[in-house]
Protein 1
Amino acid sequence: MPQSVIPGPLAAHLAAIPHLRDGFASFLAACFDTETLAPVTLERCRRLVAGLHAADPATCGPAFADLPAGEAAALARGELPAGLPPADALALEVARHLPWDHHGLTDPPVLAFREACGDRATVTLLAALAMFDALCRMTRAAARLEGA
């Protein structure tokens, strides 16, 4: 697990409220369960969500693994790289609906991921995706507060 699960800009705003920061960090660590989902799967999803936000991946949660440069670049553009393991391709199919098309996420991709990876991995994936999206949004809001 990475040392800090709260991105730097957001952590700076939470520093004045240690009990909130620490509770939030514990909650995020539980969402980013690298024993249930492979770190590289979480990393691919984190980078895709960041790409869909047109954000620096560092603003959307902690890094979990290194990715090949071409793959990282495709995800930064919001594209799904070809040739991924089937479970990762399914996870990215679910992730691509966040943040701007969450109502467009239908049952079949989620059920396909569940069939391939199990219930616990599906819950972990959905929680992690929601947190990647939320962290991108919160960090962007925190940056705007600095200028206010």
Note: The first helix runs from residue 8 to 14.
Protein 2
Amino acid sequence: MSDDSSSQLRPEDRLPHRAPALLVLGVVREEGDELWVRGVLPCGLPTSDGERVSALYGLELAAQASGMWAPQPGRPLAPKRGYLVGIRRAKLVADLPATSPLLVHLKRKGSAGNLNSFACEVALESDPETVLVSGDLSTFSEY
């Protein structure tokens, strides 16, 4: 586990979301172009039946997780706004368990200015080898 500044950042300090829309719990570790983030999907989300949530929320969790990278030198702690602007090659299970801790693994694929591209995988924290959601995400951040 790396001991960098991103693991010390609270989601509330980096993301504009607030409960119940804030899905990120915190950074597990950051190593170069890879980031692992812990999150949870609350049972009160639209499409939830109390036990399961649409797997599309796994992509939203991954997009929020991408905002948890340590800030670049000369940039503010948090962007004013961030947008999920593209999803490619998404693979989703039917539904995800509500309230179960999830582990998001992101790998940076590239960037151009404020536009970033990531490969993402979402799994149960208790079974990180079984990927439930995966795909390539593009995000845009306003500073």
Note: The chain has a mean pLDDT of 90.
